[in-house]
Amino acid sequence: MEQYLQLCRHILETGTKKEDRTGTGTYSVFGYQMRFDLDKGFPLMTTKKTAFRLIVSELLWFLKGDTNVKTLIEERNPIWDEWAFEKWVKSEVYHGPDMTDFGRRAAVDEEFKQVVDEQMIIFREKILSDETFALTYGDLGPIYGRQWRSWPTTDGKTIDQLQKVIHQIKNSPDSRRHIVTGWNPEFVDDMALPPCHTLFQFYVADGKLSCQLYQRSADVFLGVPFNIASYALLTHLIAKECGLEPGEFVHTLGDAHIYSNHVEQVKEQLQREPRKLPTLVITEEKDSIFDLQTEDIKVEGYDPHPKIKAPIAV
Predict the structure, then answer these.
(1) Whether the predicted pLDDT of 314 surpasses 80
(2) 2-67+141-300, superfamily in CATH?
(3) Which residues of 227-250 are buried (b: 16+ CB within 10 A; e: fewer)?
């Protein structure tokens, strides 16, 4: 994972200090690319423990076209909770403690963080127990999965981009149109978070499938390790579906940034030596990747350094 560590060093050494939507502030560079040869091991971060199970359940959630956090909460996956939670605490039906700017406040105030955690527990319980509440406050709008599997057309129909690209790879592997996009300008404002990983393209050569992702916005400390592993996994899964071997994952970043309240964590991570990459194992008992469950995908030989905690900017 030296490619990732070099990105961190590059931002700390050359990044421009910028303001951002969350009010946290970042150190940012524009335009950066990393390449991962998937023959050399699965690119799951070893300089800090990264929750592979969460990566798997989120990606399968995307692949199914789901956009409601209820599914993820049932899987004990909190990745998207803050965005759904924000929708609830900003609504007229919420009457609990003031949650204004809860992300930043909780990062610097331990007592307030406990209040947020208590309200988050209430929120998750209501999502799981109240179907109407889940439909209203658990849905994140037409985010990734919706665009990948049900892109709306002007004639009222939808396009399953993912199935279409799989068909193209199988039947016209040399095509330069193996593209799936999550950025739909008409619906960006209706999404809880406009797609950060915006567009990906597949490429077939010598019996191997490679994938390049363009990511418009990259939270380098918290988000990018997940994005690398998620799209490496996606490459493996689509290769499996198409009867190919995995090739390269190419990660192209637009605004690559380290949040100002992540700098010390990044410096701590840079002091650690990378370890051997794990091996990805996907069950052979399922005929299609669309039938896979979280427990069907694992890594073996994962021996990372300990986790490093940092606040998420919502």
Answers:
(1) no
(2) Thymidylate synthase/dCMP hydroxymethylase domain (3.30.572.10)
(3) bbbbbbbbbbbbbbbbebebbbbb
